[in-house]
Structures are given as C-alpha cells and as structure tokens.
Amino acid sequence: MAAADPYHLRRAPTIHHYSNSREELGSEIGSVEFATYTVQIPPTPDNQPMEIPAENGNKMERSFTSNSMFTGGHNCATRAHLKEKMIESQTSHPRVAGANGSCCSVPGCDAQVITDKRGLDLVPCECEYKICWDCYKDVLATGDGICPGCKEPYRSHDMPELHSSRLSFGKSKARSQSGELDYSQYLFDSETNYGHGNALWPSDGVKSNDEGTSGVPKSFVEKQWKPLSRELKISTKVIVPYRLLIPVRMIVLALFLHWRVSNPNEDARWLWSMSTVCEIWFAFSWLLDQLPKLCPINRVTDLDVLKEKFETPSPSNPTGKSDLPGIDIFVSTADPEKEPPLVTANTVLSVLAADYPVEKLSCYVSDDGGALLTFEAMAEAASFASLWVPFCRKHEIEPRNPESYFNLRRDPYKNKIRPDFVRDRRRVKREYDELKVRINSLSDSIRRRSDAYNTQEELKAMKRWKEKVDDEPMDRLKIPKATWMADGTHWPGTWTVMLQPPSDEPLKGIAGDSNSMNLSEVNIRLPVLVYVSREKRPGYDHNKKAGAMNALVRASAVMSNGPFILNLDCDHYIYNSQALREGICFMMDRGGEGICYVQFPQRFEGIDPSDRYANHNTVFFDVNMRALDGIQGPVYVGTGCLFRRTAFYDFDPPRYEDHGSCFFGRQKKAAVASAPETSQSHGMEVAENQEINAPLIPRKFGNSSLFLDSVRVAAFQGLPLADNSYVKYGRPPGALTGPRPLHLAKIAEAVNVISCWYEDKTEWGQSVGWIYGSVTEDVVTGYRMHGRGWRSVYCVTERDAFRGTAPINLTDRLHQVLRWATGSVEIFFSRNNALLGGPRLKLLQRIAYLNVGIYPFTSIFLVVYCFIPAFSLFTNQFIVASLTVTFLVYLFIISVTLCILAVLEINWSGIELEEWWRNEQFWLIGGTSAHLAAVLQGLLKVIAGIEISFTLTSKSAGDDVDDEFSDLYLFKWTSLMILPCTIIMTNLIAIAVGVSRTIYSESPQWSKLLGGVFFSFWVLAHFYPFVKGLMGRRGKTPTILYVWSALLSICISLLWVAIDPPSGNNQIGGLFQLP
C-alpha cells in the first residue's frame, strides 16, 4: 500500500466500489500486483512533515473505523463508506476545513464556493471575496459585475481566469529555524523546484518579461497587489428613486409649461408673459443643475496599504526608506492687513508638521504684497517650528495648527499617556503665546525701526550737504524713505530660503532636562521652507493670484521639483495631518496617472451656529462635488487641491498618448516619461525630437534649461508603482528613495524664473500653468485640464483634511459671491465657455461647466419673479386667470417632487435639512444682489472693455474679543443691498395694499389675494437672513426704525387705495367712513 497522508481521509467519498460477484471479485484482486514503495514528498509551504506517534496512529485508525460505515455480505466485497460527520478538531484544521469547500460569503447564502479540479477555492476578485457559482452569476447579471466585497468591477468574467486563494503569496507558508513563518525562504528562492501544484515555480524556461521577482509567474505577482482606494456606490434604495424622480419631474415641468403657454391670462397678459418666460428659464436652469447629479459616488482610501507599498522593506527597497513622491505646498497671501501674518504663520506651521516624509515635503510661501511684515512673521514661525513640529510628532497632536489646537474646547489630555505630555504642552503653549506677541508687535517695531534708520540717513545727508562747497538749497535735498530690515539693510522685497533642506537620514534630538523636551526618540528634521516675493515692475500685468502661482510653479520646479503640488490659501491650514497621504493614495493607485488633481472639500471654522449666510456651502461641497466625482471629476475651487505637476504643462493624460510623437511636440500628447536607466531607446527618441522642436520649447515654457530638464523628471516621479500588470504607465519600485539635493545653481535659477519678464512671449497663463483672464482662475484652470481628457477625484476624509475661515459678515459675504459670479460671467463670454469645449469633455461634465457660466444670468429672471407677487397684489390680477384645479395640481406635484429630491439628496450626501434650506435662502439673496451686479459688470467688460476690480476677502477677525461672532452683527452698507431692500419693501407694501383692497371691496376676489399673498410670503421667507443682517445685534436696533417702517408702510398703502380706489366707489377707503 502507498504511504498515505494522515489527513488523506478528509476527502469523503473517494472509495473504490467493487462488484458484488465473488468471481468478479477474485478476478479483480488477482489482476492486481501489490508492491511496497515509498513516496517522498518534499517540504513545501503547503506540506509540512509531521511525525505521528504510534499511539496517534492507532487513534487515527480507530477514528477511521468509528467514522465509517461498512457494508457487505456473503460472496460480496466489504466496502467502507466514510461518514460526513467530523470531530471538531478535524474541522478546525486548515487542510480539513477546505476539503468540502468554503461557504459563500454573500449574506443569506450557505452554498459552497467555486473550486477547481483539486478542490481548491477559486475567487473571481483580487480581494479574495468567496462567492458561489450561483451568486457569481447573479452579480454578473444584475450587479453590473461589481464584487460584493471590495465594490470593484470584476477584472474577468471567465472561470479559467479566476484566482486561486490557496496559491496566493499571502497564503504561502514556510517555517524558519525559530519555528516562525518565513515567507522569504520560499517566495524568493528561484533555485528550488517543488513541482506542479506548489506555491513557487522554477525560473527555468520562463520568460523574464512575463514574470515578477525570482521567476514567479506574473499572475502570482499580481496577487499581492492591493488597491489604495475604492469607490463606494450609493445605496440603490436611495439612488434608484432619485434617478427615476428626475425624469418624472422633467415630464411634469414640460406639461406644466405647455399648459401655461396654452392658457394665457387675457386680463393681465403682460403679467402672464413675464411669469411664463421666467418659469421656462427656471426649468432650464434646474435641468442644468440636476443632470450632473445622476452619478454620485463616495471614495475611501487605505493608508495601511500605502505604507506597506511605499514605506515597508522589500527586495527593491531593503532599508524601507520612503518611496513616496515629493509634494510642494504653496501658501499664498497678498495683503497683511486683510490676511494677518499670524494666520499665515499658523498655516505654515501646520504644513511643516504634516505627517509625510520630511525629505519629500517643501513649503513655499508666496507674498504677492512683498511686505516686510509677512517676511519677518514667517521668520518667527520658522524659528518656532523647531519646537512645535517635534512636539506634534512626539505626542501625535491633532490638529497641528497651534492656534486651533490651544483653543480646542475638548479635553487636551484625552488619550495622552506619556508622563511628560503636560510639561511639554505647558512649555510649547508659553512659547506660542510669546510668538503671538512678537508677531502682533512686528508692525510697530518695523515702523519704529524704519523711522530711526530714515532719521539717521537724513542726518547723514545733512552732514554731507554742509560739507559741500556749492550753495545748493537744502529744500532740494531729497532723502528717499525706505523700509529697513532687522540687520540694518533695505528691504529688497525679494525671496529667501528660511529652512534648509533636511538631511537624507532621520535625525534624532537630545534627551532634555527638566526644563526642555526629551526629543531623543523624535525625528527633529524640518521640511524646506521658502519665502517668495516675485519681482514686480510698472507697466507689467502681474495677473494677480494666477501670476503668483505660476511663479511658484517655476521656482519650485527648479528647486525641489515635487511631482505633486498642493495649493492652500493663507487661512486654510492642514486639519488632518494625514491628508497628504489620503490624496497620494489616488495618485499612486491603478489609473492614477490619468488624474490631474485631487480636490478636497472646504470646511470652515468660526461660522455662527445657525450658518445664517450659508458659509459652509455644504450643498455645493457635499452634493454637487460628489456627483461630479462620478462623471469626470469635481471642479477646482481654488484651495485644498493636490495637483499633478505635469497637468499644468499642457500635456494630455497617458491614455491619449501617441507613440509617434515627442515629449515636447507641437501637438499635445501624453505626459508619460520612462526611467532613463530602463528605457534608453525612448530617451534617445525624446532627445532627437527635442532637437527638432528646439525653437518651440522657449515659446512654451521659457528659456530656463533647468526648468525644461525638470519636466521629464516630474513626469516620471509622478507615475504609480509598476507593481502590477494593470498599471500600464508606472515607475519601478525604489526609484524615489534617493536624496533630493538643493544646489546654489538651482537657487540662482529660481530667481531668474520668477522675474516679471520671464513669461514674455511664452504660453504661461494661456495654456501652461494657472490660466489668466478671469478673477476665478481656479475654475478655468480645472476646465482646461478636463478639456484635455484628464479626470479629477473628490477626496472626503473621515476627519476634515483642511479648515479655513469664511466671512460671516453680510457685506463681505456678498462681495465674495460677487467675485465668484463675476468670474462665471467672464467664463461665459470667453473661449472657456463649455459649449466650445473639446470632444474629450464628457457630456454631463460639459453641462456642469455650462451651468457654472450661466447661473449668474438666472438673477435677471429671479428679480422679475420676485416682483411679480407685488405686481399681482397691486393690480388685483394673477399670473393665471383663476386658481383652477389643473394649476393647483401641477403646482403641488412640482413642489412635492422638489421636496422628495431634496430629501433623497440629503440622504445620500449626509447634509442636514437646515443646511439645504439655508442654501436655498442665500441662493435667492445672492441672486437678487451680487449675481445681477456680476452680470452688469460682465456686460460692461465685454461691450465697453471696462476691467473688473478685484476685492480681496478679509480673513481678519473682529475687534470684539469677547464675542467671536461680532462680525456677524456688524452692518456695513453696500450698494448690493439696494435691490433686496426694494424687493422686501415692495412685497410688504403690496401685501398691505392687497389686503386693504380686498377687505374694502364690495365683491372681494379672495383667490387672487391668496395667490399673491402666498408668493409674497415665499419671497419674504427667503429674505429672512438678509433682514436679520440689516437689523444687526438684537437690542441694538433703534426702536424708531420699527416705528418709521410701520408708519411708512401704512401711508403708502393708504395712498395707493386713494389713488386707485375700488371700482364703483370714488371715496377714499371705499365703504369705510371716518367718523
């Protein structure tokens, strides 16, 4: 008999059946030759020899006997049938448990999973989600081929290509001398051959281009690949009714508009025509806003997989040094009065303390105002960073903005277990308070210092004048006033490197005494910090923020050349220290080479609890942006956005690559670079094409050779890891573990590329970098990228990635909305109109961008419609001839469907009902004020060429230190308030007139009154936040204001009744007589 595996008996009915006849039995036995032989099975990860004592063998034999049923009889062969029942110890063994196949993981299904001929489990997805054949067919038929486990589409629907979960790297086992599992012993030993069916194949006869490491077949290399991000579909219980209700409401709107056009009000045709035109435009505007919301999705990232891939020791990276790509972070500021330096300093400190490899991080501060105040504040912040950053790393501080952290209203000691935390926090808090005092006093100290130096210069000039022989009058002596730095030199208004690049290896601190922090276990290195103030000269158009960002793109490309760029406003700081890793997960995932940017939602602090003016803007960030993520990606909103550097260089995504073109070709091709050491032929081809198209390169990027050399490097370093065959465009692992030195030649070249003349006769601002020509350069820049075929991703993290401030004052909020709407009007009248977009812009994405340019024009119809209820009450007419059942039914269905759609949006987006209502209110407030002004400004620019002024949004807090919401009650008059005030007063007077007319009339028409009053109250309900903003703080509004408002309304109402009394009565007041 053959030597049998002790666990061989686990395979049930593999019994040979013999015939019942004695003759046949004898003939069969006689034909068999019995021989003694031994099978040598080498030890493999799936086969570990185990010595079985004799007593255990007897137990196994007794177990076989007790678990078998014997049948037979006279002249019949005795047969043993193994029972299906097993003892608990056998079922717990991994080899025994898999004998009959695993159970399906789909809830409610207990069928066996798909197996191969050897009985091994087959899984159709890389996540190894076990599923039976019936459930698999159901998923392919009804679930769009989406895996129930990881929610990713199945790569193949053919059964032979399914993955074997028993042969994957994650399941292979080997034992080391210590008895622990040693995976490397078998996974990377190419000389060992275990034969067919084991976890490792020999390297002999296997082609190198189809294999991974050590001769392992490519299918097994792919098995260890894990996705860095996943898409989470919206529940079908919510999204299916949502999608069905949209066409239903479209049909109802079409029928209603047809009925309105077919049934005019002959008594008030002008009123009917105005209302009908407005309703048609509102239906069109609603359609533009609603159609891009058909495909909302959610996304999640896996930071553990990111760390495993890029920061874990591997054959290509034995030391485990970070292989993550570099990130250059841009922090922009322009006016130290409206953007306090302390706010900017806190943002910079949060950047320097971010949880990302120090040597891969660089921070660039753009001071477009060139203020010495901002420069010295950044110098103070850089000094404080040497204490703040190690403190954050040591105690895992969140958030890493000092101002926000020390003002937290929760217990700061929660989950802190280090005994020295209280002492360290007390010291850092004291240092930060001193930093705040120094920064706040910089303005006065700079003024006093400059006055002292200027006085000293005047004395020197007078002394030189007295020493001269000529008789020049003293009044002609001109002494220029200058701003002086602390070292006694003039402030040049240029740039400098404040923190030098860190060392390539971790640097630990020292063990402090009782008065200092113990940093012996903390990496005290700091990222690069560069202060940039670009050159400005009279006669040059510096293009505001877009020009400053392009200067940073060139300077950072020459110096650090991080393949990814994160831009932040000075008041938006990193609230989640791992936000950078979350964004990189999408860029480094499969297909990430086609992503131009990852947009994070904007979250705000310091907003009043009721969010009176919809500052949080949750409907846009949590509804519209999530929906766009399911099409081609969200729009770029100006801050909190992680860019791929090469997307700024007017290149197409890799999927549009033309292999016959060059990297710098005349036609726009894919920005795909290969490693020079691995693709020499490709490098020679690019060099040849560069030589052919050499005259075109300065025209596009400028004449900086260092910048041109950085383009290829950035393109290569921004590619995902080529650790799987699904990654078509990738770089080899371990390619970014080397140092990034900063030479003096790079610093000198950086000064050259930020000069004001560098962009002359180039394509910067036209097709390269941030796009010029609009106050909303962010939307235009994102639109250009989407038009070239790039896609973007919306990253909503569990903990807010970034937080900033928003204007809570009504006037500031209206000016902010005015700037956004003005930029949209500019987009509509420019070549960036979505109607002129290229064929690579998807249809729904085109509709979304078209809505961005059209929505301000809705204000024209909105203003007219807000006056229609007042006109109706004044003239005793209505938009329809009478309130018929048909009109009321249409109105009811349209209103109900709108409410149901709002409820479903609230369900899948996670916003609150109050937030949705606040958005509706401010949509009407902004539409009747800022949006209409934006349309007028846009028309003036197009027709008369009048440039639009840019107003910087103030980030400074109120003067009242006792009330953080003091700005909310501050009233600042602006011309944008005239039209909303007029609408409110007109509707109030119209209600009074209508009620008076109906009461005094001999034949009152209550239906027309109710229709007009209902729509007037609808308008006034939307203006409630605006009225509260006009009234200011409760208790501070003068009583005389209420008295005069009431008297004015009564007088105007009586005046209207006197001018136009009810028909058939010439007396004032109708039947009402004064005593």
From TrEMBL:
Keywords: Cell wall biogenesis/degradation, Glycosyltransferase, Golgi apparatus, Membrane, Transferase, Transmembrane, Transmembrane helix. It is found in: Golgi apparatus membrane. Pfam families: Cellulose_synt, zf-RING_4. It is a multi-pass membrane protein. The active site is at 368, 778. GO terms for cellular component: Golgi membrane. The chain crosses the membrane at residues 848-872, 878-904, 976-1000, 1006-1027, 1039-1059. InterPro entries: Cellulose_synth, Nucleotide-diphossugar_trans, Znf_RING/FYVE/PHD. One of its GO terms (biological process) is cell wall organization. GO terms for molecular function: cellulose synthase (UDP-forming) activity. UDP-alpha-D-glucose binds at residues 332, 338-339, 368, 544. Mn(2+) binds at residues 545, 569. Belongs to the glycosyltransferase 2 family. Plant cellulose synthase-like D subfamily. Thought to be a Golgi-localized beta-glycan synthase that polymerize the backbones of noncellulosic polysaccharides (hemicelluloses) of plant cell wall. PANTHER family: X-BOX TRANSCRIPTION FACTOR-RELATED. This is Cellulose synthase-like protein D3. The lineage of its organism: Eukaryota, Viridiplantae, Streptophyta, Embryophyta, Tracheophyta.
